[in-house]
Amino acid sequence: MHSALCLDEITRLIAKSSQSDKPTLCSLARTCRSLGEPALDALWEQIQTITPLFLSLPKDVFTTDRKTIVWGTRIANGHPHIDMTYRLAREITPTEWITFCKYAARVKVVTHTPDDKHEDKSSNPAALWADEYAATRLLLDTMERLATETPSPLFPRLQELQWRNFDVFTYPFLRAVASPSLSSLSLEGGPFMNIGNEAEDENLLATKRAEAFEVVADLGTLFPRMESFTWWNYDGQSTPTSALSRALCHWQHLRHLNVGIPLTDTALAHLSQLPSLRVLQMSPHVRSSTSTRVLPLQGTKFFSLESFELHDDTMEDARTSFLDVTWLLRFIGGQISSRSFSISTQHIASSPDIPSLFEALSEHFVRETLTSLNFRENLYFSRMMPMQVDHTALDTYSLSFASLQPALCFENTESVILDLERKVTLTDSELLTMAQAWPRLRVLRLSSRHGWPAPGSSITFAGLEAVLEALTCIEDIAVAINGSSTPSRPDGRGGAGTAGAGHAPRTLKLLDLLNSSKGGRTGDAALSLLHILANVRSCDLRAWKFHSDGFGGVPRDQESAQWWKYVFEILKATRPELDAVAGHEKRQGASWASGIFDELLA
């Protein structure tokens, strides 16, 4: 054997280069002792569940038991059945358990990311979840029986854990895998049922649920070096707000937090002063833990934050609207120092909300720091519920210049995405004022997912030209225009095609005209666009292509879509390098979900 293979660094580099090739690693592990250890470390470094650890034991330990569990309406109505495929045939001996622990000591990552090269159970999430549940119960039972042979911690190298669980009996698993080295934890689901159906007594389930919440409260001490924590898809019968907040207050190195569970004001105060926190994704609902105010009214909060995102709770009784976001910003007080601010909601308030939201933005965000705004509104499911008034049809709910004006103070803004299901009442001069207030803007998308509802857009070709000339860094813009009129430019320099009229910058990569209305002669419209894009070498043009056609109050207009298709055909005949597409087109190889979506729209 070459002397270089005696160096541990060399052998580990060889093993790491073959990490994606499991058969090669298995062969390396059998080659010799010097290659065996690095190969085994690479082989076991990342696993999808803990099931493979049990499969490393002798074959007679397990027997195949295809036990089918059919979800009841009380537990999870609508879920498919799950097959539990492994059952313990005999007790694991202490010697076999030591072998199990030796392999567990090599694991660094447990994640559910599918392995493209192995299509067995990794392609079936239900089977993967079932195996994980069975293995978790087996692990806890074995650790309790062989406590003296179980090392502490069981996974000493574990750095990242993604764990999904809805069973109240298996939350002690988090104590079993507790390791000071773990810095990333992702939880899915919550302790709200008993998959194995051992406990039909609601009182016992409530007791086990309380014990599970205690495990959650101890996460702060179990994993003291936590840097990334996620808990999503929680759908429990009670909210672990206090337990989770207790854990959060212990973490001093947290960099990324994503939770759909309301937090306490104490936890929010702790997060606001963490120098390490970079990404915060949370619910805007905060619950008071004391009768006195915990957060100071003044001062800078979240001073190292790069991204601040507020989204809908996963709890059924906690709906998020823009008014809730406004309340949270005023509750936090002071100045929030974040580069990006995002909101996503599926609900709408019963009173006008946009003006107060943008006023709160201008009051509580550091003006020199904020560079990105991203507000997304999807009211489709809200419209399915009985409502006396469709608030989005009211004038007070429109996206107007007056409501947006407070946000113009953020002069370093680079991206503005406002996907709202509301009327847009902006004029040429108002849109130009926005462009002049945000000279560094690279992305401007206004209601790009749903289009501009009736009465449509009053932006003209000349107005679009003036805006694109003012935005010297623009790369992506989505606005609807009125194709039937081209009045004088809002800055008084004359219409499109006149002497001195400007052009879009060369940085432009995407011009999305959304549900722009049709005009008169297609050749005139094409000529205006050619003039606007004279300096642009390559650009994608879109019109009447939505992600959510017809779901945001904008019905399909085949005549307008066809008119823009003719305009784009003239453009492509003149400038083939422009990729211009109008209307909704089905493409070869579209997913089955897209096909179903098209049928629903029809």
From TrEMBL:
Q: Which InterPro entries match?
A: LRR_dom_sf (IPR032675)
User: Matching Gene3D superfamilies, A to Z?
Assistant: Ribonuclease Inhibitor (3.80.10.10)
Q: Which domain of life is it from?
A: Eukaryota
Q: Which SUPFAM superfamilies match?
A: RNI-like (SSF52047)
Name of this chain's protein: F-box domain-containing protein
State the organism's lineage. Eukaryota, Fungi, Dikarya, Basidiomycota, Agaricomycotina
